[in-house]
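Practice problem 4.
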């Protein structure tokens, strides 16, 4: 069905220039601003829960430190996902307000959330929460993490998407051919984008 769909306005990482990256707040506000499709990243926590995070560590985007795979879901969700967010300060974004952290402390309850939102919208989300929040939204999901962990994440993601009945409205991606191949083997009915090897084959 993707060949028959029009060009999409995709919110990368939930619109990272205009909201804390990969948060429910970012995903929700991206749709309100006109995004057709939401893109986010997924990894596995220490206790096997799929969480929405880009980096292998939490250092860059939270008030914590350490590898994602070494922390439980409870430990990850105790962190402030908007701690270091400055408007338009992401890679490729013009930094309009350096040194301003408008949502720092919202996730931890130290600062009230904006109207219409909750503290949980600014913490590290689970993929299950995203699927429950956006049952009818087109999604692009990129599998992240070290290769050995990413392969396991691929299998978990396949099972979760199947549980929610998501197939032709989701695209799953990875920059590692082994990871995307493992996902496709686990859930051949769910659509994927090609890894580097697949792209090279397409243009050869």
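Answer key:
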């Amino acid at each position: 069905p993707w060949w028959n769909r029009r060009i999409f306005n995709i919110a990368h990482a939930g619109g990272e220039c205009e909201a804390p990256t990969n948060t429910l707040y970012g995903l929700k506000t991206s749709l309100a601003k006109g995004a057709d499709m939401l893109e986010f990243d997924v990894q596995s926590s220490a206790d096997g829960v799929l969480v929405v995070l880009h980096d292998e560590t939490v250092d860059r985007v939270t008030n914590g430190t350490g590898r994602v795979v070494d922390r439980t879901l409870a430990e990850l969700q105790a962190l402030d996902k908007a701690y270091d967010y400055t408007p338009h300060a992401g890679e490729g974004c013009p930094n309009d307000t350096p040194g301003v952290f408008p949502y720092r402390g919202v996730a931890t309850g130290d600062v009230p959330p904006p109207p219409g939102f909750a503290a949980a919208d600014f913490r590290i989300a689970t993929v299950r929460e995203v699927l429950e929040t956006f049952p009818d939204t087109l999604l692009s999901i990129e599998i992240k993490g070290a290769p050995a962990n990413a392969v396991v994440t691929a299998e978990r993601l396949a099972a979760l998407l199947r549980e929610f009945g998501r197939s032709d409205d989701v695209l799953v991606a990875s920059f590692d051919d082994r990871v995307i191949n493992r996902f496709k083997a686990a859930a051949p009915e769910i659509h994927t984008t090609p890894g580097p090897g697949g792209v090279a084959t397409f243009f050869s």
